[in-house]
Amino acid sequence: MMRKLTALGLVAGLLAVPAIAQTKIEFKEFDLDNGLHVIMHQDNTTPIVVTSVLYHVGSKNEQPDRTGFAHFFEHLMFEGSENIARGEYMNIIQSHGGTLNAYTSNDITYYYESLPSNELELALYMESERMLHSKVDQTGVDTQREVVKEEKRQSYDNRPYGSILIETLKRSYSEHPYRWAPIGSLDDLNAASIEEFQQFYKDFYVPNNATLTIAGDIDYKQTEEWVKKYFSEIPKGTKPIYRPDVTEPKKTAEIRDIVYDNIQIPAVIQAYNLPPKTDQDSYALSMLSTYLTGGNSSLMTKELVDKQQKALAISAIPLDLEDGGIFIMYGIVNMGVEPQDLETEIDKLIKQVQDEGVSDRDFEKLQNIMENSIVSGNSSMAGVAENLAEAHVIYKDTHYVNKVMDAYDKVKKEDLQRVANEYLTLDGRVVLYYLPKPAEPAQ
Amino acid sequence: MKKITISFVLSLLVSVVGFAQVDRSQFPKAGPAPVIKIGEAETFTLDNGLKVFVVENDKLPRVSFTLVLERDPLFEGDKAGLTGFIGEMMMAGTSNRSKEELDEEVDFIGAYLNAGSTSISASSLKKHQEKVLDLMADVLYNPIFPEAELEKLKKQALTGLATSKDDPGSISSKLSSALVYGKDHPYGEVQTEETLNNVSLDDVKNYYQTFFKPNIAYLAIVGDMSKAEAEKVVKKHFAAWERGDVPTFTYEEPKPASQNVVGLVDRSSSVQTVIDIAQPIDLTLGDEDYISSRVLNQIFGAGSSSRLFMNLREDKGYTYGAYSSFSADKLVGQFSANASVRTEVTDSAVYEFIYEINRLVEDGVTQDELDKAKANLSGSFGRSLESPATIANFALNIERYDLPKDYYETYLQKMNELTVADINKTADDLIDPDKLYITAVGNATEIKDKLEQFGTVTMYDNMGFPAKEMAAVDANLTVETVIENYIEAIGGKSAVGSIKSAKMVMDAEVMGQQLKIEQIFDNSAMRYAQNTLVGGNVMQSSRIKEGKGVVSGQGQSIDMTDEQVDAAKLDTYFLPEFYYETMGYTLTLDGIKDVEGTPAYKVIVATPLGASVNNYYSVESGLKIKSENPVSGDTFFSDYQEKNGVLIPMAQTIKSAMIPVPLEAKVTSLELNPELTEADFN
């Protein structure tokens, strides 16, 4: 049902540049007394409206022996509420001509629905039901535990290379709760009591930890009235939101390991720790990853896939997180090539960027590509709503949606070389070889 | 003034109510249905006949250009596959730029450019539009069609064809197209190795010169561009494009079957059956029935709340998903209902499909289903309008299908006016439940007899051609005789029995890599060793000796279970037929089958522990031509040559789920009865 950022984020990460360049996004925002932050964006071109709630809770807010809770709630909160029958949430939205989705990351959980604009009141009602009194009971927990088990099997255990994120995070962090992935542990979910789930709901799914965004064919005044009507009565959380205050110690030695998986073709993974998402260096790192592997004419794709044919595919993805994420690079090895051989070539190209930087022409190309993707990121109401919510929650400034291009403009050509030297350091990185489990006997 | 005051008071009331207790037991009512405003496309035509549509949308500084050729469908005949090469050949370089330069220039401005046999499309940020139009026009005017590129594309197409021959989904779609449209129709013809190889560079050039003409082309421009600016840039880049006479084609209209018939393709390794129940229909975009056919399909089989899904998946659990479609087309459309189901429920699933089709035509739909389908389709129609490309498509469709100008403006209104009776009439008009093509791709031994209840079953091959008529097995022929004849055919009992061991090396190429398979057979001591090398490195190996087996790969070794050793032994004797009797295997003769055009006896060889392989022995020559192993895949044997008085196949084609393309292996070294040492098996 719901797409997961956890696995898909790996692929989508490259495009996840958050906001706009030239065309300014107008919006209005206000707070309710219970702490709910509301952002509205009016665009009457198409008679649709996107309604979303971003809860500022992800896997990093979990306890080490109760991992997977935030993601589990992403499922649980489709179970219904006091007024929405079990399993009906999706049917109601769909039979009113809408579609919906949700995802969970290490930092946030995001729910949204897109409906014809005359159904906005319904959307607000549905989200307020979810926030006020979601069904957190044993039946729901039992049902969704089975679904999550199946999901884990499909997306992580059975999918080739599906465990890359889990295995990489585990080794990239020793202290910070980023060391477990949003999917978490089924054992933890099995061990948790119903009271613990109910407590988690009371702790994190409260208006003072949520941002409601409405984007599309709306009337500002009417929308504000409906928001107040449905959300004002939701009580504020009673205690401060738990946010881990952990500084991940800098690694001084390389961590190297082998993972045997149900795959046919080996892969090489490298991961480097990154600064916090809001750090100015994030922009240079995002350009660097595009330089290395974005598109057919990127450095590594051209050299390792086309020319040397040592890799079938290669990708570099900055998984940028609130407290500092990781830069993951993975290469799928071509037939008959030793993983070691591919790794050597990858390292050579990283060294080349560290020593020589990038050319003027390549830098200009990167600026063009970034500009295009920033502009395109706001081509749908769903994209605009998500960018607005993220700007408020992560960048603490909704106006950030209109400042992304400025941030990229501040990056100088030399910064790419500098961040390559500063962050892609060999002594603190994680290197994993994914190797096939010996196959069934084949004659 | 008064009006304003009243509404102000009203809105105050609303907010007062808002702060009072909210009745949460009632869902909020929808507001009045929003007016769907569909931006109109502006249009103009150049002197050379190029018709241009402009949908201005300056929300974002982007612009896209889509050029579409409107030609009649093409029957490609002995060159089937030609049109599949055109797009990539157009993009393979121009007289001004090599392919690599073209790629780099497109990437440099963060743009997109692609071509197909009837289209070229490009998009970029507004500020790069001149550059992207330059590149687009260069591809349109100056393609150079390098010979090497065509060879590469042909090779890829041949690989794709080989893979599709074993892909149940591809087989199913070839079969139903062949039945619904006929093989002499553009929509029913298939590509073969022969037709792909027939395509020459001249054919590609000829196609380009014939069909890339402005007088059959539409150009849709969507994004940050006014009509005035569009006129300027289009003239600049496309006015020089010269018109030409483009041939037109007509085809006979395919007819439905005269009664329900069953087409079956035998794929004996299948554990699932792909079912497709299809019929040609007379349906074109803009027909009176068109909008109601969308609603009808939504109710019947478009999604996870439709009837087929609810019955075959949710209720019966036969399949992961069952769906239907009503395709609309100027020449001829198609109704199709399909699913992949477990082999053992094949007949039950067909029964449910037919039950649902009959129920739809006879009993019709309910008001509740209609309301939900309308809500669902209105929503997705509304959401689709968010993309400016949709508006351009609408404009194109109005032109291409000669629709009323307000067709899309009033689309939702027309849909919402549809009644239960309208939908039922459409079901009745479009579907004839007594003239269906019922197609199945699966294990014929298991399902053929069970399908007879739905209509006469005709066998087809994996390309959708009628399967060769296979004679029935002579009633006096036993499976033992087939094996004896085989042993006789390769040299006779004593010659075969004299071969006690062998060392064999095969070479193959897969995706540009050299692959070497070394095998050592020791029949008398029942020992076996196998190494697979890629680029000189051992990738995988296996050993069997003293009743135990080990498989190794990537530095790890795993012991085989007893069952795995038992299964492995089926293939680890050199000329294993000689040992079937002593091994206590059960042999079953399962008729005469068509193996790539050669009639062959199918023999099922089963071990006492339940493992099995299927062997195929040519009726004419007696030689073994194919073996199917559920673990390692299908192996085809050919190029039999005499060695030590025995005929040995020197070529093997291996198809397996583990490898992406069929492996063509040639025996490059063969030693019979060599000296073997313990080291050979370590």
TrEMBL record, chain A:
<dbReference type="InterPro" id="IPR011765">
    <property type="entry name" value="Pept_M16_N"/>
</dbReference>
<dbReference type="Pfam" id="PF05193">
    <property type="entry name" value="Peptidase_M16_C"/>
</dbReference>
<dbReference type="InterPro" id="IPR050626">
    <property type="entry name" value="Peptidase_M16"/>
</dbReference>
<protein>
    <submittedName>
        <fullName>Putative Zn-dependent peptidase</fullName>
    </submittedName>
</protein>
<dbReference type="GO" id="GO:0046872">
    <property type="term" value="F:metal ion binding"/>
</dbReference>
<dbReference type="InterPro" id="IPR011249">
    <property type="entry name" value="Metalloenz_LuxS/M16"/>
</dbReference>
<keyword id="KW-0862">Zinc</keyword>
<keyword id="KW-0645">Protease</keyword>
<dbReference type="Pfam" id="PF00675">
    <property type="entry name" value="Peptidase_M16"/>
</dbReference>
<keyword id="KW-0378">Hydrolase</keyword>
<keyword id="KW-0732">Signal</keyword>
<dbReference type="InterPro" id="IPR007863">
    <property type="entry name" value="Peptidase_M16_C"/>
</dbReference>
<comment type="similarity">
    <text>Belongs to the peptidase M16 family.</text>
</comment>
<feature type="domain" description="Peptidase M16 N-terminal">
    <location>
        <begin position="38"/>
        <end position="162"/>
    </location>
</feature>
<keyword id="KW-0482">Metalloprotease</keyword>
<feature type="domain" description="Peptidase M16 C-terminal">
    <location>
        <begin position="193"/>
        <end position="369"/>
    </location>
</feature>
<dbReference type="GO" id="GO:0006508">
    <property type="term" value="P:proteolysis"/>
</dbReference>
<feature type="signal peptide">
    <location>
        <begin position="1"/>
        <end position="21"/>
    </location>
</feature>
<dbReference type="GO" id="GO:0008237">
    <property type="term" value="F:metallopeptidase activity"/>
</dbReference>
From TrEMBL, chain B:
<dbReference type="InterPro" id="IPR007863">
    <property type="entry name" value="Peptidase_M16_C"/>
</dbReference>
<feature type="domain" description="Peptidase M16 C-terminal">
    <location>
        <begin position="198"/>
        <end position="377"/>
    </location>
</feature>
<dbReference type="Pfam" id="PF05193">
    <property type="entry name" value="Peptidase_M16_C"/>
</dbReference>
<dbReference type="InterPro" id="IPR011765">
    <property type="entry name" value="Pept_M16_N"/>
</dbReference>
<dbReference type="Pfam" id="PF00675">
    <property type="entry name" value="Peptidase_M16"/>
</dbReference>
<dbReference type="InterPro" id="IPR011249">
    <property type="entry name" value="Metalloenz_LuxS/M16"/>
</dbReference>
<keyword id="KW-0732">Signal</keyword>
<feature type="signal peptide">
    <location>
        <begin position="1"/>
        <end position="20"/>
    </location>
</feature>
<dbReference type="InterPro" id="IPR050361">
    <property type="entry name" value="MPP/UQCRC_Complex"/>
</dbReference>
<protein>
    <submittedName>
        <fullName>Putative Zn-dependent peptidase</fullName>
    </submittedName>
</protein>
<dbReference type="GO" id="GO:0046872">
    <property type="term" value="F:metal ion binding"/>
</dbReference>
<feature type="domain" description="Peptidase M16 N-terminal">
    <location>
        <begin position="74"/>
        <end position="168"/>
    </location>
</feature>
